[in-house]
UniProtKB/TrEMBL annotation:
Residues 25-117 form the Rhodanese domain. PANTHER family: PEPTIDYL-PROLYL CIS-TRANS ISOMERASE, RHODANESE-LIKE_PPIC DOMAIN-CONTAINING PROTEIN 12, CHLOROPLASTIC. This is Rhodanese-related sulfurtransferase. It comes from the Bacteria. InterPro entries: PpiC/parvulin_rotamase, Rhodanese-like_dom, Rhodanese-like_dom_sf. Pfam families: Rhodanese. PROSITE patterns: RHODANESE_3 (PS50206).
Amino acid sequence: MTENSFSQPIVHISVEELAQRLASGDPSIQLVDVREPQELAIAKIEGFVNLPLSEFPEWGDQVPTLFNPQAETLVLCHHGIRSAQMCQWLIAQGFTNVQNISGGIDAYSKLVDSSIPQY
């Protein structure tokens, strides 16, 4: 999965917007974290489903049954590159409301919640 293999524009949201969406408690928001398990062991935001990009062959075909393609789907990684790749892939699979979290968990830790460790 490479970013250049897709051509759809990606919608980005800031980490501050993410914090607002999380605080809203909206149960219809789908939260996806594409970081690796060792990264989650260091820092995570509760409520995200972990789908490591390196394990794509294991979970790729399950995405249509795990998530609603019409629901708001927010995608997180460390800085925003891998999550952008996942956003492109989700859009290509027919997802209609996908948003990349700009700056990833690194920016979230710096700008929103300093209790989340940086790495």
